[in-house]
Amino acid sequence: MLHLSHSRGIVEKTTIAAASLTPLAGAAAGRLLFENSLSILNRTGAWHIAKDLCQEFVPHHAQARYWRLGSRGPEGLARKIAARLMMLEISWLKDSRHFLIGGKTAGGDTKVFLDPLFVLRSELTEKDIVLCHDVGPLSHSFLYDTVTVANYRIAYEKISRERPGIVFVSDWSKDKFVSLYGLNFRFLTTIPLYVRTGLFDGPLEPLSGIDGPFFLTVGAFETRKNQIAALEAYRDCRFREQGVQYVLCGPRGDGREKIIDLAKSIPGVVMPGYVPDSQLRWLYAHAEAFVLPSLLEGFGMPALEAAYMGLLPIVSEGSALVEAVDGVCAQVPPKDVAAIGQAMRHALSRSSAEKAKTSRELREVASRASKERFLQRWRSLLQAR
Hints:
This protein is of the alpha/beta class. The chain folds into two domains: 9-194 and 370-383, Rossmann fold (3-Layer(aba) Sandwich); 198-368, Glycogen Phosphorylase B (Rossmann fold, 3-Layer(aba) Sandwich), CATH 3.40.50.2000. It has helices at 38-41, 45-57, 76-93, 136-139, 146-162, 171-181, 227-236, 256-264, 277-286, 301-308, 320-324, 337-349, 352-368, 371-383; strands at residues 3-5, 32-35, 63-65, 110-113, 129-132, 165-168, 187-190, 214-218, 245-249, 269-273, 289-292, 313-316, 329-332. The strands form two sheets. It has a seven-stranded mixed β-sheet with strand order 1-13-12-11-8-9-10, with helices on both faces. Strand 9, helix 8 and strand 10 (269-273) form a beta-alpha-beta unit.
């Protein structure tokens, strides 16, 4: 069933002060340490969030730690080598008490783990904080390899024993966590993510090979993104015969072979790969709708980026994608190819007035998801730690 829902929520009336004006709580709470080993391994959206948090609070209010490499993260080939060694250590030692990073010397610190996995090789106490993007390796284990599932399961078991404070990027992720581990933690709170508006600043460059209206999907070619169902919907509705194309762009991930093979077999599908920002801006500005019936999203950044450009998202019902755009979207059952096709057909049939109205509502939603609000909420949390 197709839903076009509108849930505005309550707009905060307080003015958000510049984050750099207010010092964090004093020494009584101990040092604040951002455990940012994530940035050695990960270069996806979670990496950008970790980078922005560290840029805001390190070094004036906190220190940073990158695995066993101290306060400076490696780059280039050194980062890739360190990432492999770090993951080998995690897989071999897991949550063993032997050779913990920092050991007892970090006992007085308040540590902020920017991914749950890295509690495994560190001391973890109730006063610490863990940032959780999703519990996908547990709630959607079929999307991950067995080693990843096993490691995250042990990490979450350690978290459930020590009961630290946990920050989630969406209520959807928090609800999934609570269904597995309950409410008995120092705190459970949601701080939604924000649109990286810099992505949309600059000139627009048309993508060659586009000669009419088109649907757009942006995201890694991964099983969890569910591009196969969207491609089947495009094919079965015979949109190409109506002069409508379908553009899929993004890096290649797990499950890419099946996605690419199917896409190549369907006339009208364009796969430019990873496109520069100038072309991405043009695609967002000219598409008929953004299509992502994903099986798992911790927050829903792709839908929020589409909203920033006023582009209707067609997304999985009841998901973090819906939450990210405050319900201003077309919701579809992610495994129902016919329903996805129906939503795409409806998006094409909208009048100019309908498109303009939805575009305004989406831009309003995206405008509330600011980096300043995100950082202020983190600052308030850390002051109260």
